Amino acid sequence: MVRLPFIGPVAKKQGRIVVVTGAGSGIGRAIALRQAAAGDIVIATDIDLAAAEETVALAKGACCAFALDVRDPAQWEEITDTIVERFGVPDILVNNAGIAIGGAFMSQTPQDWEKIMGINVFGVVHGCKTVGSKMVDSGKPGHIVVIVSGAAWTPNRVAPSYSTSKAAALMITESLRTELAPKNIGVSAICPGATRTQLGAHATLITSAGTSTEQTRADFVNIQDRFAFASPDRVARAVQRAIRFNLAIVPVNFDATLAWILHRISPALMRTICKIPTMKLAEDAARTAVQRLPSAVAFHSQKSTPATTE
């Protein structure tokens, strides 16, 4: 049996039961905090239990923490049974947990692909299957949210495995939406653009020849922190809007919206634009921005919220 620690006194009371994966930081934490503040009972799950506990400590409302590796269907089964026993059938599931791997297609190994697909795709599959089946069996309305990405419709030379995994997650969401509509269960894909999280800090990076992985990571994180204008809370607000109005796809921020429009209007133009960036070009651009734009970086840093993980 998988041990699933639990903290936080949560009484059975009014309010929806909301399960959030990857709730230990970043977007997942912002979603958990917003839902708890709205009066929901939030189950904050994360592979890092200590991080999930920090989210619980910050929550203004009913919130508890579980350790969960989304790749493990046995853990999904056990945690879902525990939630149903203690609180009831979840009303909302937010599949947020995800990772990124940067590097050209030819540089990434089969193990890299297995890792990212295991979390970004099969983590969604296991969650939707396990929690979704409980929703269907209960016969009551519900909602499933998948945090996808603007990368889902962006051909990507810098992180092809990430774009592929997010495209798969988007199609899972679209397919499930058609299947569960007759059951009065909504399904929404939230597609953020560049967001101030620590996704880059925790990403696996396969850099071009002759470059330092750690220096490149530091440059990317620096740029993401200063120039990604969407905050995790903005994504959390988009989640609430998607649930309220049962929206199918919600791009968040102008970059994701622009990519969505280009993808819809002219896929050929989108492919042409996406041929330009390479890992080496991305590394050089990040390094140049860090070195030559200190004043702009410092100015934006004052306006930015602290970076957190996805």
Report what the structure shows:
With 310 residues, the protein is an alpha/beta fold. The chain has a single domain (17-300), classed as Rossmann fold (3-Layer(aba) Sandwich). 52% of the residues lie in helices and 13% in strands. The chain has helices at residues 26-37, 49-58, 73-86, 110-120, 122-138, 160-180, 199-202, 213-227, 232-245, 254-265, 267-274, 279-292, 294-303, and strands spanning 17-20, 41-46, 63-67, 92-95, 101-102, 142-147, 185-192, 204-205, 249-252. The chain has a seven-stranded parallel β-sheet with strand order 3-2-1-4-6-7-9, sandwiched between helices. A two-stranded parallel ribbon has the order 5-8. Helix 1 (26-37) crosses helix 9 (232-245) and helix 8 crosses helix 13 (294-303). The two termini are 28 Å apart.
Proportion in helices? 40-55%
The topology string of helices and strands comes to EHEHEHEEHHEHEHEHHEHHHH
Strand order of the largest sheet: 3-2-1-4-6-7-9
CATH topology: Rossmann fold
According to CATH, the homologous superfamily is NAD(P)-binding Rossmann-like Domain
Beta-strand content estimate: 5-15%
Overall pLDDT confidence: 81
- Level-1 CATH class name: Alpha Beta
* Distance between the amino and carboxyl termini: 28 Å
Number of helices: 13
Largest sheet: 7 strands, parallel
Furnish the topology, listing elements before pairings.
Blueprint: E1 17-20, H1 26-37, E2 41-46, H2 49-58, E3 63-67, H3 73-86, E4 92-95, E5 101-102, H4 110-120, H5 122-138, E6 142-147, H6 160-180, E7 185-192, H7 199-202, E8 204-205, H8 213-227, H9 232-245, E9 249-252, H10 254-265, H11 267-274, H12 279-292, H13 294-303
Parallel strand pairs: 1-2, 1-4, 2-3, 4-6, 5-8, 6-7, 7-9
Helix pairs in contact: 1-9, 3-5, 4-6, 8-12, 8-13, 10-11
